[in-house]
What we know:
The chain has 397 residues and is mostly beta strands. It has helices spanning 3-7, 136-141, 146-161, 195-199, 312-315, and strands at residues 16-17, 28-33, 39-40, 44-53, 59-63, 66-72, 77-84, 91-95, 100-108, 115-121, 124-132, 162-164, 168-172, 179-188, 206-216, 225-238, 249-262, 272-285, 291-301, 318-325, 331-338, 345-354, 366-375, 385-396.
Amino acid sequence: MNVCRSLRTLVLLLLLSGAAAAADGPGLQQMLSLPSGPVRAGRVVEVQVRWLNDGPGPVSVTAPPRLPIRLSTAERGQDALLRIADTEKAGAATIGPGRFHRVAYRLELSDDLVGQITVRVEGAAVGVITVLRQPAEAKKEETPSPADTEETISKAYFADNFYGYEPMYFLYGPDPQDARFQFSLKYRILSTSSPLAKKWSPLRGVFFGYTQTSLWDLNADSRPFEDTSYKPEFFYLRQNAPLRPGAGVQRVDFQTGIQHESNGRGGKDSRSLNIAYVRPTLIFGNPEGYRFTVSPKVYTYIGDLSDNPDIYRYRGYFDLHLDYGSRDGWKVASILRKGTGGSNGSIQLDVTYPLNRLCFQNVDFFVQGQLFSGYGETLLHYDQSDTRFRIGLAVYR
């Protein structure tokens, strides 16, 4: 974790007993992590809410999309709201004994409440934050215009509905024709605060996903794409499923969906397929530190395969995703695939590390190295075997 983030995460928190309705439960304690240094009035700051289970058995907790708080100085006070930043963690989660559940929230500070401010959740003091008054000229410059308001609404909309999905990167090989990039997002169909999603909470897990992977020939005059795979899909994602299989498993996620994949070409170069899949994910180790993830993806082909009738011989019906690493350090990820024909299959290995831990502390990129060996890197040449190494930058992993 970089210095800027670490300075914002270590402030002592006063433990609460039943401080919020969302934190009710035997052996459950709620904590807040506030910015450790002074912040400016009128800014948005990150506040982390943690629920710690110090009881003997698993406890269920619900992270609300909005959490009421009270901000007060010696002279006056005002009510405020913590708005969830990590909306994927909204809803119920099960915490094992000795474990905690952490959720990031955003707090918008008002312009007129400054000084040593006590933060309270339902009447119980949980910490102090120092808020400095904005300079007069800064306040004048930051007065929002209609365009600024529209931009703020737009940012909030995207923050609440769009998320990274598969890794996003741009990589360059020893041969310029080997460049590869990938772009991937997922969109939550129903907002977590919508009446329908509140009534039927499983609907919060319905997503539309889109991933685009391109091989780019930077050696040719017109810089053409060698091939591009377009992969839209609809899927259901259940995170923190209430399953406890033991054997060191700390968390179980479950995903199932339907995915289309095509290369957008016509004639003899056209390739397309549709699959229906299920993908459980088992997470071992420390969710906040180094952890090991096992995620098998089992699928079947549906519909017409006339463009590539024997593709199952090279891709098979099963992918195995394995990765090990931490959120703020090294991560090694692999995708293993075995076709039904002889030794056909492929392996992809990715190693990433935060660039801001090496240099450039103000950027949130990752250095990435990738090795692909086997069949099916592109749809166009799914029946050809290649081995390629690339290095570059990732923005999401």
